[in-house]
Amino acid sequence: MTIVVTGATGQLGRLVVESLLRRGASPTDVVATGRDEARLAELATSGVRTAVTDYADAASLAAAFQGADRVLLISGSEVGQRLPQHTAVVDAAKAAGVGQLLYTSISHADTAQMALATEHRETERVIRESGIPFTFLRNSWYLENYLSQVPTHLEHGVVGATRGGRISAATRADYADAAAVALLADDSAGQVLELGGPSFTLAELAATVASVSGREVTATEVSAEELTAILVGAGLPQGYAQVLASADEGIGRGELEVNTGDLERLIGRPPTTLREAIEQTLAP
Ligand SMILES: NC(=O)c1ccc[n+]([C@@H]2O[C@H](COP(=O)([O-])OP(=O)(O)OC[C@H]3O[C@@H](n4cnc5c(N)ncnc54)[C@H](OP(=O)(O)O)[C@@H]3O)[C@@H](O)[C@H]2O)c1
Predict the structure, then answer these.
(1) How many A from CA of 6 to the centre of ligand 1?
(2) For the segment 143-189, what is each residue's pLDDT rounded down to a tens digit?
(3) Which domain holds residue 26?
(4) Residue 12, Cα to own-chain centre: how many angstroms?
(5) 31: in domain
(6) For position 178, which CATH number holds?
(7) CA 204, CA 214: separation in Å to the nearest integer?
(8) What is the position in ligand 1's atom list of the atom closest to the CA of 169?
(9) Measured between alpha carbons, how far is residue 6 from residues 55, 176, 208, 243, 272 in Å?
């Protein structure tokens, strides 16, 4: 069975390829794709096949999907460009006769109102309309989104606009493992999987960073407008700051809270917890 992974040069995709191999996929059955040729060369050292693909280059997609049984479309990183890019991938998969298309979406993509959900919802629609058997891997937040902020939390506290909402974040490694399981499974077609780890609030995040570090860490909830201004003041572009504030508002509505148990069931073990991840982050 030939499995193509798009975005394999990225952080999640590399982990999916590693997990596929760990779970017994033959390296020659795996095709890792992306634009970055240096990263593809690194991936090739594990024995997998590689192909340079660009979502803007239909011929590159057609060549990579030739003979593919399953394709994992890892959502692109160019927010605002993703619907046409993902549509190009779906069109190429359809033309190549791919048997199953798996897509890394976002929690509650069908109903979530946060700005980031729009392209995922539209992509899911395009995939459904293509008629290709599909699996939606609706990932909640990456824990790493917060782990990279731990030094800031220690200095300035945790600041957000979540109104105490819960966040079912999990590590990229756990989401990648779930994707590998779904890629290798016989029964994942037709499934919409809501994936996430044990949920926490920003107050619980601050308390955990405080507990692990032994330092005081505050948690402050502000309005979305205030958060946008704070992020712009910290150097983020206005548009990106607004997208992040919109995501926090969505958290306040429960849009990144997941209680299905799908992630634990797929990977066959409890996902890494916030505390474990912060302990690893702060380990000397
Ligand atoms: N759940 C969350 O908290 C969260 C957070 C951030 C992002 N995301 C989403 O999850 C995806 C995977 O996360 P990640 O951490 O692995 O992101 P990442 O490290 O930025 O990787 C993105 C991947 O997409 C590929 N890509 C982007 N544009 C492309 C194009 N036009 N044509 C071909 N390939 C393209 C990149 O390929 P090259 O590097 O080779 O160009 C790279 O392999 C992101 O792209 C984003 O949609 C989710």
Answers:
(1) 9
(2) 999 999 999 999 999 999 999 999 999 999 999 999 999 999 999 99
(3) 3-140+172-195+259-268
(4) 7
(5) yes
(6) 3.40.50.720
(7) 15
(8) 3
(9) 9, 13, 35, 24, 25
